[in-house]
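Review this fold:
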Amino acid sequence: MRHACVIAVTAIITSGLAGCGPDSSGGDGYLNPATDVDLPLTTFRLQDTEGLAPVLQYTIFRDFYRGIQPANEGDDEGTARVLREHLDPFLGATPNGEGTDYTSVRNPLDLINEVIRLGTVDNFNEGRQLMRDSVSEGEASTYNTPANDALIRFSETNGDAGVPSADRTWIYPMLDWTSTPNLGKVFRATQYVARQPADDDETVAEVASASWSGRYDASTFGTAGFNQPEFAATSFTGRTLGNVELLQEFVGNQRDTLTLTSASGISINGENPDCIRAVLDYNDQQVRVFTSSDEPPTIAENGEVTANPDHCGNQQNGEETRRYDTIAIGRRQ
């Protein structure tokens, strides 16, 4: 069952984060080094710049956004366009002229991932170095901001015109790295919560909260640059458009699963579903899109709660609303 696989992947990613309590140092010789971070940035928008190293290839949705493009034009009957247009407000994406890729993004999860990758913040670098040192010594360790009452704040000093004031300060109440040498894994998790918009703001950012978690192979985890996760889970909670979840599998199946719940404003196959699950298989170069409306994920029958087979997250291969072949995407990141 595909739904069971989704649950299993999420459990694998988050299992290493359990037990990160406020007194956890992670190991006898390793103290939690997390401190307050207050980082001013000219802009929160990420884009590729000619003559400089690329940035967008490291953004979370880049592979999926491009990868749902049909191999034969029209085979998707507009599904790829509909999914991208729904994602754009969450990602702060600027689509290219063809609508098949984006030329920039502005969202809190991609931004903190890029800050970590570039090594901009010394304290984040300390967190990664802690992981590397503890893995080398075979001891568990934790970098955890809530445990130290530390807060991460990014401030935009310039950036896009017309952005509401509340959306020029991004607060991250949690950043966590945890090493588990017994499993040979490093885990990272991030949480973001938007500030309350001012009463006179004419525009309000769609993202109300967001989170990202990933699992890494400890043997290849580095203290600089980009670390390729084995699995990653991303979620956005929207103010008006519902919720977005993306589960990414970078080993084995090579698959992304996008799930939209409480969704509004989407039309697929002549219907307006509130639940959409799009499974992109990179090896088979195929997308399966499952949809449902007004179907709860579970149902109670004879005093037992079971998965609702009509909910988009529980539907099986062969029950999809649409299936089509896609273009090839190489070197996923």
In short: The two ends are 26 Å apart (CA to CA). The first helix runs from residue 2 to 15.
